[in-house]
Amino acid sequence: MWLLEFLPDWIFHAVLVVGVMAMAASFVLKFVPFVTTYRLPIQAAGLVLTVLGVWFEGAMSNEATWQTRVHEMEQKVAAAEVKSAQENVRIVTQVVTRIQKIKDTTNANARYLETQVAQDLDRECTLTNASVMLHNSASQNEVARSTGNTDGAASEVKASELIGAVVENYGTYYQVVERLQGWQDWYRTQKAIFESIK
Question: Hey, is 52 helix, strand or coil?
Fold first, then answer.
């Protein structure tokens, strides 16, 4: 309630005390001429002040309860944010470590291709223009065009270059998978942390 924010609490306590005292005075102090003369207005004013005082006391009690709950929730959210930050560090570290392992594996496969496979592969295997076109179309997620405009001649692309592109693409694929799994893990973890706040 907006009035509770602008006035100090002692005013509402005073309204209740004055109301109860006015009611009591109108019944107990009948022998005082002023009270006897204005007994009905004093009782009415006392009743109104008592009702207002009780109402404001209830509102203050309700406000205090809500403020306590808000404070508790703020503490729970702060604790959840700390846990969230710790989980973020864990997830990022895990994803970066896994991606680095994938990069290392991809680089090792590329070195193996260069040192052990490339010369024999290029000497033993030649690619046609149609196979290179098929690879290029697949890499763009397109349907390969008709091979009618190719003459079936050997391509200038070496087989080792094609395999090198495949090795690199697989490495990229697994890096993307790790990033996706990292995002999924992050989402599930954050959801569990913040949904546990009640």
Answer: helix
Residue 55 tokens, joined:
């109402």
Element (H, E) at 14: helix 9-28
AA identity, residue 10: W
Read off the pLDDT of residues 159-173 as tens digits, 9 standing for 90 and up.
999 999 999 999 999
CA distances in angstroms from 59 to 46, 67, 72, listed in the order given: 20, 12, 20
Residue 103's identity, in one-letter code, is K
Closest CA to 196 of 86, 90, 84, 89: 84
Task: Extract the tokens encoding 99.
Answer: 């991606």
* Residue 125 parent element (H or E): none
* Residue 147 CB neighbours (<10 A): 14
pTM score, whole prediction: 0.65
SS3 142: coil
The amino acid present at 95, given as its one-letter code, is V
